[in-house]
Amino acid sequence: MKIAFVTDDGITISQHFGRARFYEVLTVEDGKIVSRERREKMGHAHFAGSHDEQQGGQHGTQAGERHGFGAEAEDRHAKMAAAIHDCQYLVVGGMGAGAYESMKQVGVRPLVTDMTAIDDALKAQLAGTLKDHTEYLH
Asked: Residue 67 pLDDT more than 90?
């Protein structure tokens, strides 16, 4: 099983999916980490010149659309997910509802946690106690 964590330092879970710089991807077999790798993650900085970012960072939101939804947002989320297409889970400290739904659509289960340490969240996930705090979605 592979679990991706959004991070800026490889130790803590980033509180904002879109702004995090990396994915820390842990491969777990028989309850033990067998590999750990850092992967580049596309984020807000990569899309800074896009039309929606120029429109105040609303991520392609048109009148009547929710934040993080719509064709442009889905395209960005797909690009963000490409680096972790082989992972079963994505653990974040916070993310938008559109990104959350987009991850599910590509087969990666997002988990929004209140834990800060990657290793602690991994232990909780392996124990089956990592709670998905969807109330933290924005």
From this structure: no
